[in-house]
Amino acid sequence: MTTCLLLLALGQSGQVESKDFSADVQAAALRATVRVVNVTRNREASAVIVKQEGAGVYFLTAGHVAQAGDKLEIHTFTKDSYPKPADVYKSAEVLAADKEHDVAVLRLVTRDAMPGVLPLCPPAKVPDDKDFPGLSAGCDSGKPPTCQVEKVRGKKKVQRPGDKEPTLAWEVAAAPAKGRSGGPLLDKRGLVLGVASGANDGQGYYVHAEEIYRFLKRNGLERLSEEERK
Q: What is the pTM of this model?
């Protein structure tokens, strides 16, 4: 029988009490997590800012969040604006997407400084543990980003009906709430291990960092990785 993780009560700041994740790590997660409003498909989700260079801002999210040509809004949040958005951008686009492996990169053209950026976990630093704590961030439908402490059960291969091949994912003890799709899963170092993909039988699944790196390589987007920044 699956036992769902008991999540700690959320504070007004969006953070939770945790011995594993410092206030600084949680604040960084909230600054880099955005709400995605897909106007075309009338749905809301989440994404994480992984890089800003020049006039380009790049967001990692789930592949089912948006498709090429969709009209998207990006809502960013700061400490001063919370719980209201600091800015709303209406010109984001899908730069690359893989629906089968449920990964996508969105791009926004602006020179506005983003509230925060979270680095992707380099392949050599991706944990191979089971039953370790993770931190998720995401926007429950219509709400600002909040943090949740997750019990990460380990790496799994998952396959949805109609998919040609399985996707590598992290399995967590609790399913993400509606609207948190595409939000990041972090380790204690504040590195992005995956993005929220879906749920099954009360458990949550986050696209694994290895799958994300393969996606970035296929689409010529390796520069978005932490290793490329060094």
A: 0.92
